[in-house]
Structure formats: C-alpha cells, structure tokens
C-alpha cells in the first residue's frame, strides 16, 4: 500500500498546485481551509466511509466536471 507522500509525488506530476497545497498534511482541517480560501460551495463535497477510522472526502471540481479525492483519517 502506498504511503501518503508517495501519493503526493504521483499527484505532483499532473497537478503540482494540489501537491503543494496538500503535501504537508492529509487532515480534513487542511482540506476545509483550502476549500474556504477558494470559495467552494458547501454542496461541492461528498464523503465515503472506508472503515471506522478513515474515509474519502470528495470535492467536485465543477469547472472540469471531475472530483478531487482525499483519503482522511
């Protein structure tokens, strides 16, 4: 299983701006601050539980009609 920093390195290849923003932390707090700074509407998110300790936090990138996904503990 990949470690967090390995995922960040993969992300940097196509989206260096996201890797710069999230390379230091995988916390939900970091993601929410990032969203607020960029004016994302509250309805632009979804959450998928993976187990009792972790989940995926999804943000819809409306301009590109794609999702940005964070694995958060």
What structural class is derived from the secondary structure elements? Answer: alpha+beta
Total domains, how many? 1
Proportion of residues in β-strands: 25-35%
Order of secondary-structure elements: HHHEEE
Mean pLDDT metric: 82
Strand order of the largest sheet: 1-2-3
User: What share of residues is helical?
Assistant: 25-40%
Strand tally, please?
Answer: 3
What is the structure about, briefly put?
With 73 residues, the chain is of the alpha+beta class.
Describe this structure in words.
The protein is of the alpha+beta class. The protein has one domain. It is built from three helices and three strands. The protein has helices at residues 4-14, 16-22, 28-38, and strands spanning 45-49, 55-61, 66-72. The protein has a three-stranded antiparallel beta sheet with strand order 1-2-3, with no helix packed on it. Helix 1 (4-14) runs antiparallel to helix 2. The longest helix is centred in the N-terminal third of the chain and has 11 residues, at 4-14. The two termini are 16 Å apart.
Key words describing this protein structure:
73 residues; 3 helices; globular
């Amino acid at each position: 299983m990949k470690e967090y920093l390995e995922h960040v390195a993969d992300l940097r290849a196509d989206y260096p701006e996201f890797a710069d923003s999230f390379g230091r932390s995988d916390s939900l707090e970091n993601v929410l601050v990032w969203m607020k700074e960029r004016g994302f509407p509250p309805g632009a998110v979804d959450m998928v539980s993976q187990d009792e300790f972790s989940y995926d936090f999804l943000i819809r990138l409306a301009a590109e009609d794609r999702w940005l996904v964070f694995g958060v503990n």
